[in-house]
Amino acid sequence: MSKTVAILGTLDTKEGEIRYVRDLIEKLGHKTIVIDGGILGQPSFLPDISNEQVAQAAGTTLEQVIALGHEGKAIAVMAQGASRIVQHLYAGGRLNGIIALGGTMGTSLGLAAMRDLPVGVPKLMVSTIAFTPFITADAVGKDQMMLQPAADLWGLNVITRAALEAAAGAIAGMVNTYRPIVSTKPLVGVTTRGVCRYLNWIKLLLEERGYEVTVFHAVGLGGRTFESLIGQGLFDAVLDLTTGELIEDLCGGVCSAGPERLEAAGRLGIPQVVAPGRMEFWNLVGKPEAMPSQLKERKIHQHNPLVLCVKATREEMIEAAKAMAGKLNKARGPVAIAIPLRGFDELDKEGGPFYDPETDSAFIEVLKKHIDSRIKVVELDVHINDQEFAKAVVAVFDEVMGSRGGKSKGKGRRRLE
Amino acid sequence: MNKTIVIVGTLDTKAEEVEYVNELIRRKGHQTIVIDPGVLGEAGFEPDITRHQVAEAAGTSLNQVIQLGDEGKAIEVMAEGACNIVQELYSTGRLDGIVALGGSMGTSLGLPLLKALPLLVPKLLVSTVAFTPIISQATASPDLTVMPTVADIWGLNRITKRVLENAAGAISGMVETYEKSELSEKRMIGVATLGSAALRYVPYVKPLLEEKGYEVAVFHTNGVGGGTFEQFVEQGMFAGALDLSHQELMSYLCGGQNAVNRLEAIGKRAMPHVVAPGAIEWFCWFEPVDTIPSQYRDRKIHMHNPRVAEIEANKEQKAALGKVMAEKLNRALGPTVVLIPTQGFSERDRPGGVFYDPEGRGAFIEALKSNIKPEIQVRELDVHINDAEFAREAVATLDSLIVNQADH
Question: Chain B 105-164, CB below 8 Å of chain A: which residues?
Fold first, then answer.
């Protein structure tokens, strides 16, 4: 059951490494397609797809790319060409997985080339800058694996060879297990976070109704993935109950999912039930001692050794309410908002470090004031982690799904490809 | 070629997923050891190593951990216990690779665990918080592989199954290609350097070392590579070290952001070292320039690129570094030679360069020489660090240290 793995890198600087990975993958029984995204120098072995072809796929020529005289701009053009080639190979059934390797430049090239392949297609980035601040959530794809070699990719040696062996093994192992994602049930996407515990009940209730449930950890990348999978048309409905990434984005928290959070479902007209889960704080990374001085007065909670929670102010909550209303007012499909009046997450409950009903009320008032009258706001005298909240949300969900007239509850069978 | 893969996940919340990965890996013909470091709730199935055993490995009991009443602290204790267990499994030949699954708690727990294992042992973290700042150079093992879960690990569905299949395939593939024996066959030299804007000896030293039959591994010492370099020295990976780049130590003394407390492993593992003070004229700041500490605002600052500010180290700091380096080198267990290229320590330290400073260089040399013990040879060479002649001298010196050591 031989598969085809695309190998992307810059042959001008990483030739030995690319050749080594290619030979390993072939030894493991798979075919390879080597794509050269490099710009300078003459490679000593011929790739399957040359840098000239990559430049052409971007609508230009290698000569013109070199004439840009700027490495960063050149890489951006080559990345675009590589991305088109990779997608074309995939669409033609000639690619089962992709591996890219590189330093700063090769990583920009590789990430851009693989990020538009569908979720589930094995993708591996071997990057010397994998866990540096250079790699941000918006630079990475939704599901690519990232391997950091312990030494620079500066020729083959025992350390780089071991890293490349692991990489070849990993991508070969992934394409071996690969099968398309198929399901017959309608799919509901739900957002949550560790501090929101409604899922135990909601998942069961939805499964009883014949839905399949997929959960997203709304800590930035999760929210971005959620939005982008909604955009791929994967979900029949969403329960977007942990929307705190909105306030992260407004306040510069580390868990921001970007400014477009809470927009895709509305844009596509997918039914949605929304709640302000964990809206009353945002996150920083590090120790309380290292907090910026302007935050010294804030209430802080150390979630775990790596993550700090910063209590949002009244003004920040009000801004978040306006943002939420503005986004939902634009929705083309049915929307309902469920508000747990006794607290938005585990930290925001009586006795909890962020319990603050007054500020929560300010949020609720502003949200109600700005929200379109066609959107139902259901206020529930419960805490978000109470079982009653889960039940009420599912009841609201049933109503929203019922309100769509004669439509079936979902499209059901589809492939995530 | 049956291997053992350790699977770590909290079985109160992730039992279904851990079980699925376990089954997939076993189906590929490998043995598995499931470790449950969870604290609350009930384990969904019986692991090979229970949470009670994990707590005991940290010198406490699960009840005491629960009584801490603080999830963050509980995670720290359980991480310690799990670290001790995986190290024990590795050293007794019962761990060929490891995969940890988790959310933000599981990731906080998994990161130190994976970091506790030797470099190059296959390690995979399947995380819901991949590519957030939670996984950084400071917290991640330098050879880590991370896979985002796409959807949350919250039960099996078409998306999570695909992700877990990829994870099981990847870790199985990694252990299948990993051969420990091969690691020790060749003599390898670790070379510390920086980019060519600062240090340019690698294109000379690499072929020279290869001519002599060595393999060369290069480390970019900008706050990351130096820590990896130290770890490899301690692990005994190298036959010798060309440790010629020390900005990370200057940064450590000055409170810079590319700081690493370097030259520590040299006192823990006997091994030939050639040391030079490459690129010590400045240290780096990555965050916006307006967050540079006030005491450094009036220093000369050079923007290396839009994200990296280089702050000049002054004469006093250079003298202080000379003393600190001498004290660290005095603890060296193996044969050690210090080479000092008196015409300049980096590309920036040349006539016309932004950090050209012969006086500061002199202060460094003076402080180093007056604090170093006489057994350690310090040789001043009338060359620049980026001259071909310096590279030749460094390689010849290291080679003779290695050869002499082998003769004894």
Answer: 105, 108, 111, 119-120, 122, 124, 128-137, 139-140, 142-155, 157-163
Give the span between the Cα atoms of A211 and A214, in whole angstroms. Answer: 10
Alpha helices in B45-194 (DSSP H): 51-57, 62-67, 71-91, 104-115, 158-177, 180-183
pLDDT of residue A225: 86
Residues 6+ apart with CB under 8 A from A150: A159, A163, B119, B120, B142, B143, B228, B232
B129 contacts on A by Cβ (under 8 Å): 217, 219-221
Tokens encoding B289: 């320039």
Instruction: Verify that A333 and A405 share a domain, yes or no.
Output: yes
ipTM for the complex shown: 0.77
What are the residue ranges in chain A where pLDDT is below 70? 1, 133-134, 136-138, 180-183, 287-290, 305-306, 404-417
My answer on whether A152 and A284 are in the same domain is no
Domain with CATH 3.40.50.12020 in chain B: 4-180
Q: Average model confidence (pLDDT) for chain B? A: 91
Residue range B271-297, pLDDT digits in tens = 999 999 999 999 998 766 777 888 998
pLDDT attached to residue A267: 95
**Residues A114-133 pLDDT 10s:** 988 888 899 999 998 887 76
CATH of the domain at A170: 3.40.50.12020
What's the predicted TM-score (pTM) here?
0.76
Minimal Cα–Cα distance from A372 to chain B, Å? Answer: 31
CATH classification of B4-180, choosing from 3.60.110.10, 3.40.50.12020, 3.50.50.60, 3.40.50.2030? 3.40.50.12020
pLDDT at residue A290, rounded to an integer? 67
Contact call for residues B3 and B89 (beta carbons, < 8 A):
no
Task: List the CATH code of the domain at B186-407.
Answer: 3.40.50.12030
Do residue A204 and residue A140 come from a single domain?
A: no
Looking at residue B181, its pLDDT comes to 47
Is the four-CA dihedral A377, A379, A383, A388 of positive or negative sign?
Answer: negative
Largest interatomic CA distance in chain A = 71
Residues in chain B closer than 8 A to A134 (CB atoms): 307
Other residues' Cβ atoms within 10 Å of the Cβ of residue A129: 20
**A214/B188 touch (CB, cutoff 8 Å), yes or no:** no
Q: What is the pLDDT of residue A166?
A: 93
CB spacing of B159 vs A120 below 8 angstroms: yes
- From the list B406, B383, B384, the residue with the least C-alpha distance to B213 is B406
For residues B266 and B273, is the Cβ–Cβ distance under 8 A? yes
Residue-level pLDDT at A406: 45
Closest partner residue to A214 (CB to CB) among B135, B157, B183 is: B157
What number of other Cβ atoms are within 10 A of residue A312's Cβ?
27
